[in-house]
Write a structure and sequence with these properties.
With 379 residues, the protein is of the alpha/beta class. 47% of the residues lie in helices and 16% in strands. Helix 2 (54-70) crosses helix 3 (72-85), helix 4 (88-98) crosses helix 5 and helix 5 runs parallel beside helix 6. The model is unreliable at 52-61 (pLDDT under 50).
Length: 379
């Protein structure tokens, strides 16, 4: 194992459990090259800090989205104030003294949409490590959107990074549209999850469903739910509702679970935890899958499950286009609660293109090996 000390920053202690799984996939990829990577949270949070209870917790959950939506610049300034108030800059300085290199990657971390301070934090970390003479890597990161200072952010990323690898072409296009050197595009490292924890079953007995709390149930939802139940009955499959982010996704998923149960089909509510084993448990026995969260879709595809994605964000479209070049859009829907979605989902039982998951993993491992050689000086 390499003796150099490498730290990786990404959002691993927030409400999206998928983020910690991505982080573990990146650690696994580097460990295959005898490079040990230590992951830390980009926001320096405590484990499970997103779980808030009582009046204050409820106030935070309800007010923050409103500020993000209607006054993002003010929300962003509050974030920056808290960054310095909590002395995060000093934490970064100490980290740059303790480690030989830094990796930033896993999740959508280069952006400032809705007042998010991720890109600011990424730049601060890169700059501090670069000024300390350490190696700086962007690996498998998602990019955008930006509400302000898009070109300035990207120029600083380029200035302070030795290597920039992004996870899809949409991310790379931000550089291209700003006439900057375009970074290399690689597959999202989360695709290797089925190598870390291979499937232990050949049984495919569930229709998988993943919801996102950002969506609202349309007037067509009751008809869609009835159609989903009918599909399950006709195909003799159960319905497994999988939660990968909390708490809003869980609230909506519980509603769906309650509306489906007692209708003559098996229904299960599965909650992803921080273990890779939970990903295998939730996804490996699915027959087909329709999901919202991008990494729920990646997890399903990694286990070879024919999947349909809801286009709530361009990154979903970009991921499918990476997996199925020239034809990915066929498997993305604009209206989750449309009967067309169910028709497309059912068609996946009988016709779905081959998921070249081994080729995808090979791409990830190859690029990770290149970075590993750079970090250890092997090349």
């Amino acid at each position: 194992m390499s003796k150099i000390r490498i730290v990786k920053y990404s959002p691993i202690l927030g409400n999206n459990v998928g983020d910690i799984i991505i982080s573990k996939c990146i650690e696994y990829c580097f460990k295959k090259n005898d490079v040990e990577v230590e992951s830390q949270d980009l926001l320096f949070r405590k484990p499970l800090s997103f779980k808030s209870y009582g009046a204050i917790g409820g106030f935070k959950i309800s007010v923050s989205p409103l500020m993000q939506k209607y006054i993002p610049r003010i929300y962003y300034m509050i974030k920056l104030f808290l960054f310095y108030k909590h002395k995060n800059n000093q934490i970064i300085s100490k980290s740059s003294e303790c480690y030989d290199a830094v990796i930033l990657g896993g999740g959508n971390i280069i952006m400032n949409n809705m007042g998010c301070d991720y890109s600011f934090r990424v730049i601060q970390i890169l700059k501090k490590f670069r000024l300390s003479g350490k190696k700086t890597i962007i690996f498998g990161a998602g990019v955008g959107p930006f509400v302000f200072a898009e070109k300035s952010n990207l120029e600083k990323i380029n200035k302070y990074s030795d290597v920039v690898f992004v996870r899809d072409r949409n991310s790379a296009n931000y550089w291209k549209e700003n006439n900057l050197n375009t970074p290399r595009v690689i597959f999202d490292p989360a695709f290797v999850v089925s190598d870390i924890c291979p499937s232990t079953t050949d049984k495919k007995i569930w229709i998988g469903v993943n919801l996102i709390g950002l969506m609202s149930k349309s007037k067509d939802a009751p008809k869609w739910i009835h159609g989903l139940i009918d599909l399950a009955k006709r195909t003799k499959l159960g319905i497994k509702i999988i939660v990968t982010a909390y708490p809003s996704d869980l609230f909506l998923s519980r509603e769906l679970y309650n509306e489906i149960r007692d209708n003559g089909v098996d229904v299960k509510l599965e909650c992803l935890d921080y273990s890779v084993g939970s990903v295998m448990r939730c996804f490996s026995d699915l027959k087909i899958f329709v999901g919202c969260r991008m990494h729920s879709l990646i997890f399903a595809l990694s286990y070879g499950v024919p999947s349909i994605g809801y286009s709530w964000d361009d990154k979903v479209n970009a991921m499918f286009e990476m997996v199925f070049p020239g034809g990915g859009e066929r498997f993305v829907v604009d209206d989750f609660f449309s009967m067309t979605t169910l028709i497309l989902l059912e068609s996946c039982l009988y016709e779905y293109p081959k998921i070249n998951i081994e080729t995808i993993k090979e791409n990830i491992y190859k690029n990770c090996a290149e970075i590993s050689n750079y970090l250890t000086g092997s090349n």
